[in-house]
Every structure is written in structure tokens, then in C-alpha cells.
């Protein structure tokens, strides 16, 4: 049977569905991915002679916030004006069909929330929230236009930074424990969309699902380390695949 129809039927029977997402889900909104062709990290050495991972590290933010901000501004500029695509929209719309939809995303672009998803764990944070590196000042900004270089805290004049996980920094404990808590009850279906599945906390929920006998779906135009272990490896872009699943679901209802 056409896998889109099978997945649509599984969705219609599901009470709880998890979507794990990465940069690829926003590729169809025009955002570059981090790795792969044209990815942000393709040119591995920055103008300053550091690997990009070092430029975007917590340590660099402490020592040379100007360097980290230069690359943060690039990332934010790429996101500016981007709108959710059909994949984000279908995931949000599924809340009308499935009683519980949880999104666990590595993306800092905020597009799942913008599309209307209500239960979103942004495990790497969100670019639009800024915090002081020294005091408790926090703020939300629509864009980075007009921020200083590097931006300084209006209260204590220390550098401010986005509330995102930089390289070498620990994940927010609350995000991972929220996911672990969610797994205390089995999911009925687990999707992994648009991620190179580099990190253990992105691969493990797929392994937990498999161990529990929960069907798993991967949507990615390329092969990844989880492609061979999921039940439905869908080799397509996120917007196309989620669009086809949505059409199949409407036809089945
Ligand atoms: P990557 O850039 O590592 O991987 C993007 C994945 O999306 C690749 O597997 C592509 O094949 C796939 N892809 C490309 N176009 C797609 C499309 N139209 N539809 C679906 N998939 C598509 O991004 P992530 O796995 O999200 O962390 O990267 C994980 C983390 O690495 C990021 O959150 C970021 C980075 O370091 C931090 O900034 C802390
Ligand atoms: Zn401050």
C-alpha cells in the first residue's frame, strides 16, 4: 500500500503522536540547513580562522561575544521574514485530528509555534528570546535589526545573548525531562523529520519508540543513521511528504 495512506490511517487511529524535527523541516521555508549541500556549516572555517562550531560556542560567547554575534546575526538574518511551510502547518492542523500532538524540535526559528502548534519543546531554545550574560534581564525581539554589535544589556551593560544552546553548552534540563516524562506513556506514532540525527537525544526517542513497538516514520530526502531502523523511511522533502499525508488523511476521514 502507498505509505502515505498507511501513515494517514495510523494517524487517524492515534491518541498520542510525537514529531521530532530538525533544520530540514524549515528548508521548505527557505532556511538553510546546518549540514549537507549548501548547509551553514559547509564552509567549515570562519573568516576568523575558527571552525564554525567554535565561533558559535558558549566559550566564545564569553571570550569574544563579537565573534559569536557575527554568526548569530547571520543565522537570524536567514530566519527573518520566514513563514511556516506546509509541513509546519500540517503538524499544527493535526491537533484537530489527534488528541495529543507533541513537537520536539532542535530548531531555534520558532516556526512550529508560528504555525499554531501548542505543545512544542524547543530543545535548543529560540532565537527570539534574549537574555543578559550577567544579570537576570530577559526580553523577546521580533528580529535582530537595530541591536548593538554586540548588543548590551540595558540594565548592567554586559553582553546579551539569545536563549539558545551554543556548542559546548548543556541542554536545558527542563526540555529533556519534559520529553522523558512524555515517554512515560507510550506514543502511538513517532515521526523524525528533517534532521541528520546527530545527537543521542534525537535518536533515542526513536529507539524507545521501536522498543515499545510504536510505528516510526522518517521524512528526509537523504539517508541518515536512523533510516534503516524506522518502519517508514520516506525519501521526500518535509512539505511534500506532510502534504501527501494530509491529503491521504482527508480522503480516509
Ligand atoms: P542538519 O543540518 O544537521 O540536518 C538537516 C537534515 O535535513 C539533513 O538530514 C537533510 O538531508 C534534511 N533535509 C534537507 N532538506 C529537507 C527537506 N526539504 N525536508 C526534509 N528534510 C530535509 O540539521 P539538524 O539535524 O537540525 O544545533 O541539526 C541539529 C543541530 O545541529 C541544530 O539544531 C544546530 C546544529 O548544530 C544548535 O545550534 C545547538
Ligand atoms: Zn544585565
Brief digest:
Helices cover 34% and strands 17% of the residues.
CATH topology tier name of the largest domain: Rossmann fold
Query: Largest sheet, described in full?
Result: 6 strands, parallel
Helical element count?
9
Distance between the termini: 17 Å
Stretches with pLDDT under 50, minimum 5 residues = none
Which CATH architecture of the largest domain is right? 3-Layer(aba) Sandwich
Helix content bin: 25-40%
Global Rg: 19 Å
The figure for the number of domains is 2
Number of strands: 9
Report the CATH superfamily of the largest domain: TPP-binding domain
Strand line-up of the largest beta sheet? 3-2-1-7-8-9
What is the molecular shape?
elongated
For the record, what CATH class of the largest domain applies?
Alpha Beta
Can you give a write-up of this model?
With 253 residues, this protein is of the alpha/beta class. The chain folds into two domains: 3-30 and 84-124 and 169-252, 3-Layer(aba) Sandwich (Rossmann fold); 52-81 and 129-164, SIR2/SIRT2 'Small Domain'. 34% of the residues lie in helices and 17% in strands. The chain has helices spanning 3-13, 52-55, 58-63, 65-79, 86-93, 111-115, 173-182, 200-211, 238-252; strands at residues 16-21, 100-105, 120-122, 125-132, 138-140, 160-164, 189-193, 216-219, 232-234. The strands form two sheets. Strands 3-2-1-7-8-9 form a six-stranded parallel sheet, with helices on both faces. Strands 5-4-6 form a three-stranded antiparallel sheet, covered by helices on one side. Helix 1 (3-13) crosses helix 9 and helix 5 runs parallel beside helix 9. Zinc ion binds at residues 132, 134-135, 137, 153, 155-156, 158.
